[in-house]
Amino acid sequence: MRKFISILLIITLLPLVSAIEVIEETTKTYSIPMVDGKDITIERSNYDPLPAEPGKYVDIWITVQNYGNSEIKNAYLKLNPEYPFYLTGKDTGVEYIKSLQPGGLKILEYRLLVDDQALGSDYPLELKFCQDEFCENSVKTVKSSITVNTGGKPILEIGIDDYDLFTPGALGKLIITAVNKGKIGIQFLTIEVLDTEDYNVISVPRKYLGELETDDFERETYQIYINPDISDSKEVPIKLKIEYSDSNYKNYNSAEEVTFNVFTESDAKRIGLMEKSSSSFYILLLLLLSFFGYRKLRRRKRRNVA
User: Fold this and answer.
1) Hey, which residues does 179 pair with through a beta bridge?
2) ∠ at Cα 233 (228, 234), nearest 5°?
3) In whole angstroms, what is the distance from residue 77 CA to residue 95 CA?
4) Which pLDDT score is estimated for 250?
5) pLDDT tens digits for range 292-303
6) pLDDT digits 0-9 by tens, 196-219
7) Cis peptide leading into 168, omega within 30 of 0?
8) How many CA atoms lie within 13 A of 155 on its CB side?
9) How many CB atoms lie within 10 A of CB 107?
10) Which of 259, 261, 177, 174 is nearest to 224 (CA)?
């Protein structure tokens, strides 16, 4: 009887013993040792392309090194992107570090999408070393940065905003406009109007316009004298020398050309840009003055007779 009870007891306890072994195994496998933040270094090793470009992906490499005396197991590194960077697909920004020996290092790679409306600037990037995949227990936080620009030349558009009616031998004003149509800032902008055989610059030819943010513009007025020997109406090119730098201090120099119209006096009158002189108008004006003068003279004579 006692043997029977013993056998029953063993059969009853056997599943419980197995369960205890499984629990101990699970706890051992996923246990995370306490890590001191000073024993861990996190650095952004590199990123490509450098600088990052709006609307494109940027690959980032992060180096994690263990300066402590004990092995680190089952840790996590989480990247928290902020605008203009985005994680793509199902990526959570969390990378698993199974083991990191004392003195050892691990390089982790991330891929982020850069917002297509991002402006040229340095943007922050936050990295967290954690003891759980949800980063509820953060051991260390490190802030880095990524430089973004358009990856090319700023889009500067030069044009003529307005100008006086120019005829041969005329002196007038011409307004030059500079517009930044790109996503990267422009600074130290200078525009110089150069003399040609068709005109001479009477005002200061070189003018400083300064800084242009995205979708910003500046105007400058130049006074020019038209060559009196021009015999036909035509388009006249304005020669410009442009100098500026982008927000990353890269310098640009270019020769630009915009055009305006010069009309002969006869053409300007024909198309209504200049008032026509009419001999009939002056004859009519003279007749009216003569008529009123005659009437006034007759009134005086009548008064003298009376």
Assistant:
1) 157, 217
2) 105
3) 5
4) 80
5) 666 666 666 565
6) 999 999 999 999 999 998 889 999
7) no
8) 9
9) 11
10) 174
d(Cα 218, Cα 210) in Å, to the nearest integer? 9
CA angle, 179 then 184 then 189, to 5° = 50
Tokens at 301, concatenated = 């004579």
Please state, in angstroms and rounded to a whole number, the distance separating the CA atoms of residues 284 and 261: 35
> pTM score > 0.70 for this model?
no
Cα–Cα distance between 278 and 293 in angstroms, integer? 23
Q: Is the dihedral of CA 167, 169, 173, 174 positive or negative?
A: positive
Q: What value, to the nearest 5°, has the Cα angle with vertex 226 and ends 265 and 190?
A: 140
Q: According to the 3-state scheme, what is the secondary structure of the chain? A: CHHHHHHHHHHHHHHHHHHHHHHHHHHHHHCCCCCCHHHEEEEEEEEECCCECCCCEEEEEEEEEECCCCCEEEEEEEEEECCCEECCCCCCCEEEEEEECCCCEEEEEEEEEECCCCCCEEEEEEEEEECCCCCCCEEEEEEEEEEECCCCCCCEEEEEEEECCECCCCEEEEEEEEEECCCCCEEEEEEEEECECCEEECCCCEEEEEEECCCCEEEEEEEEEECCCCCCCEEEEEEEEEEEEECCCCEEEEEEEEEEEECCHHHHHHCCCCCCCCHHHHHHHHHHHHHHHHHHHHHHHHHHHC
Mean pLDDT, contiguous 10-residue spans, the chain (306 residues): 50 43 32 61 86 89 90 90 91 90 91 86 90 84 84 83 89 94 88 96 95 92 94 92 87 92 87 64 62 63 57
Amino acid at site 215: D
CA distance 258 to 160: 7
Query: What does the alpha-carbon distance between residue 16 and residue 260 come to, in Å, rounded to a whole number?
Result: 96
How many alpha carbons lie under 13 Å from residue 96 in its C-beta half-sphere? Answer: 6
List 85's β-bridge partners, or say none: 114
Q: What is the pLDDT of residue 184?
A: 78
